[in-house]
Sequence to fold (191 residues):
Amino acid sequence: MKLVVGLGNPGIEYERTRHNIGFMVVEEVARRQGVVFKKMFWFPAKQAKCRFGEHEVRLIEPTTYMNRSGKAVWGAMKKWRVPAVETVVVYDDVDLELGSLRVRGKGSGGSHNGMKSILEWLQTKVFPRVRVGIGPKPAEADMIEFVLGGFTEEEYLKLEKVVERAADAVESIFSIGTERTMNQFNQLQID
Fold:
């Protein structure tokens, strides 16, 4: 069993915001697999079941707010006995330009509150993650308003390709591993 966790905020008002790109990516994976999300009762999340080759995979969207994502991730890992190294987390990164992806096998949470929560709950930095660029943030913009804001018209033209490419990276981690996925995806820029 493996997990793919997309980070975002619940509620219709956050659906198409920059901070919810993690949700958009796992929803794209679910669409490709022909599965739908259902509310969980054991921990605060929605989940969908699918397979990547011989791997049974649970796609997870925490229903907590971003800064409490760790509780849902920890609950899913405990329920299905999934180790951290078999858990892929997909989230937005304001320090990366929209169109950039960064795949890593371990690391810190940086300034991302959802990742900080996950690291606190899991007590490990060793799990694959796909960081999806949503920046750059204009110098004069407030950080919270920027990440909780919607994409511009110009950004929307690029958004579908970005989400598709990030979903490709998630699937690649399961087929060829994190290291090879890093080599394949980290240098690409979607224009």
